[in-house]
Amino acid sequence: MTATATSARSDLSELGRSETALRTFLHGLPGVDQVGAEQRAAQLGTRSIKTTAKAEAIDLAIRMVDLTTLEGADTPGKVRALAAKALRPDPADPSCPHVGAVCVYPSMVPYVAEVLRGSGVHLASVATSFPSGQAPLEIKLADTRAAVEAGADEIDMVINRGAFLAGRYAEVYDEIVATKEACGSADAGRQGRPRAHLKVILETGELATYDNVRRASWLAMLAGADFIKTSTGKVPVAATLPVTLVMLEAVRDFRAATGRQVGVKPAGGIKTTKDAIKYLVMVNETVGPDWLHPDWFRFGASSLLNDLLMQRTKLTTGVYAGPDYFTLD
């Protein structure tokens, strides 16, 4: 990290100490050109890739999937089966890569951990009163600690949008900082790395404007987010290309200012291989190949994986497998 970046990071770290300083910084960020962002996203969405490049993109997208079930009817058997699919998405083809993570509710974490232990597939758990974010802080932190203790190595927290939209930025900042601390430290004595990576869900469909998306992205990163995530998947408007573009520009600018790289996770509404490839093109064109890795970009999706598997089979065999060839999730 350069001396300039180190100085900038030190200066930015002081912002959370003052509501006034946070407000001044966040509202001083450049405004988002709505027309420009939507046109840019639409333009990138027209790019086409073929043959070998498409096959590589499909395998990369599979490795980036957070295979997710967040339903009240989830059972130990269901999440164990999902974890098994995460390890071997296509049982008939051992060359098919595993997914990036399995994402479940905290109560389901122990059952998934039994299947994934030592596999290299991450175990993510939603926390902090998902999906509303409306609960006392001590309950949110207990939720987080319980998931980590049960085996989660990634926590998907949701911000309190009511506080953010009311302009109580310091409250949101402090909750993210506290949740990051609740993720624990597996190696605190030597390197202080977080025991579980923290993905901060902005619920962009409720933030109303691209300017708010940019501000929420920066607020989450300033507070220590390892990833910023678009959505819970529980509101009508989830991930969109323009919103993800704004978030990608934010992580790019944040790394330029601080030297710290933060990941991005669009979630909700991404269902087809064509959709996934549009996002991968956007990542490459906006932030570059450093982010084209499951450590830095993920898809929050459940139905996407099956379409990726269908397209992969078509490329390798010349025949569509059909939607009932793979298990439904």
TrEMBL record:
Leading EC class: lyase
Keywords attached to this entry: Lyase, Schiff base
Alphabetical list of SMART domains matching this protein: DeoC (SM01133)
Catalytic activity as recorded in UniProt: 2-deoxy-D-ribose 5-phosphate = D-glyceraldehyde 3-phosphate + acetaldehyde
Highest taxon of the lineage: Bacteria
GO terms assigned for molecular function: deoxyribose-phosphate aldolase activity
Cellular component GO terms, alphabetical: cytoplasm
Pfam families, per the entry: DeoC
Coiled-coil regions listed in the entry: none
InterPro entries: Aldolase_TIM, DeoC, DeoC/FbaB/LacD_aldolase
Pathway connected to this protein: Carbohydrate degradation; 2-deoxy-D-ribose 1-phosphate degradation; D-glyceraldehyde 3-phosphate and acetaldehyde from 2-deoxy-alpha-D-ribose 1-phosphate: step 2/2
EC number(s) stated in the UniProt entry for this protein: 4.1.2.4
Record GO biological process: carbohydrate catabolic process; deoxyribonucleotide catabolic process
Similarity field: Belongs to the DeoC/FbaB aldolase family. DeoC type 2 subfamily.
Name of the protein this chain belongs to: Deoxyribose-phosphate aldolase
Protein species of origin: Micromonospora sediminimaris
